[in-house]
Amino acid sequence: MALLAAALAAAPGSPAAAAEGDAHRPPEGATAVLDGLKTFGQAVLMGRDGSVQQIPAGLYEMRVDGGGMLQTYGVGVTGFAQPQARYTETAWSGSPLGTNGEAGGRIRWVLEHSYPQLNDLTGLAKAAGAGALTAESAAAGTQVAIWRLADGAQVEAADPAAEKLADYLQKEAGRMAEPPSSLSLEPTQVTGPVGTRIGPVTVRTGAQSVTVTPEASALAMGVRVVDAQGQPVTVAKHGSRLWFEVPAGAGDGMASVTVQGSTRVPVGRVFTSGEWTQAQVVAGSSESAAKAVATAVWPETAKLADAQGAAGAPVTLQASVTSPDEPDDRLAASGSSAATPVIASLAVGLVVLGGMVVLLLRKRPLEDEDDHLA
């Protein structure tokens, strides 16, 4: 019955299914709201149809949930940078950079070697042969270079100095590795039997320390988050390993832990929002709040979660009634039911009985005729 209830709860469209779907995609790193374009110049975008459009190009600002500010550039020239849109820190593979193998590394190089990471505008202008740069023209030139690298956009900065900077950055862009998440847990889901320590889950962060908080329902079930020695953990750091200690006798279930801290979001991290919203890449960060969640599941719930994780979608199970000694997996696969053998036997018996009745009825008139002749 516990398995059946879990299966029904996981049916598509149910609130529990949505919650479990979210559990397999836990939040990681920082979340933020886009304030808007703050330091910018102008650019000219040439469309494939020959159209020409003037667009703003420069630095955005984002407010981090829980505290902190980010400076960002748009990743691609397409999409809407809608103020007040909510964004989530994302790996390159889950962003527009995931479709261009070299773009991420080259864009990160641009970010590390231009404004605002390099505040010496005189030195930047000299390196680019750009004459004099203002904050606005430096931001515009940097954004234009990122657009070209991200999706090959035919775009030029309107200001000559900004255009010189864009050309310089695009030409000189080297390749750098993807930066780590501001805060993550690896893996985000672990499984195991009751009465054991399930894990480990490793903390990855740039923060000096992070708080470790099990959810209230975990505490109510007697689940503890502990270290390798079995001691409760409330504070962790980069490299710390966590286990879920599930007491013997606990029923099927799951429990989560939230890790939170404050750190600078690394330059080059991407933030994404809705399908039509322009992705943003971090160019600068204050101390910002970040969090990550990991979940442990055990017994039948663990089996369901493993199946969901492997398929990449919620699992829907069809309920049926069978003998506990005779599983009906084979029958279900053929479209039959557990009652099929019984029905077949009854049908054969009825056919045989009917044949016997016919023979008796045919024989009885012949016997009567013989008696009459005698």
Question: Mind explaining what this structure looks like?
Answer:
The protein is of the alpha+beta class. The chain is about 35% helix and about 30% strand. It is built from 10 helices and 17 strands. The strands form 3 sheets. Strands 1, 8, 10, 12, 14 and 17 form a 6-stranded mixed β-sheet that branches. Strands 2-3-4-16-15-5 form a 6-stranded antiparallel barrel. A hairpin with a 5-residue loop joins strand 2 and strand 3. The N terminus and C terminus are likely disordered.
Instruction: Provide the low-confidence segments as ranges.
Output: 1-25, 309-374
Structural class: alpha+beta
Mean pLDDT value: 80
Radius of gyration (CA) equals: 33 Å
Q: Report the portion of residues in β strands.
A: 25-35%
How many angstroms separate the termini?
Answer: 74 Å
Largest sheet: 6 strands, mixed
In sequence order, what are the helices and strands, one letter per element?
HHEEEEEHHHEHEEEEHEEEEEEEHHH
Q: So what's the overall shape?
A: elongated
Number of strands: 17
Instruction: Give the helix level as a range of percent.
Output: 25-40%
What count of helical segments does DSSP give?
10
Could you write a compact summary of the structure shown?
With 374 residues, the protein is of the alpha+beta class. The protein contains 10 helices and 17 strands.
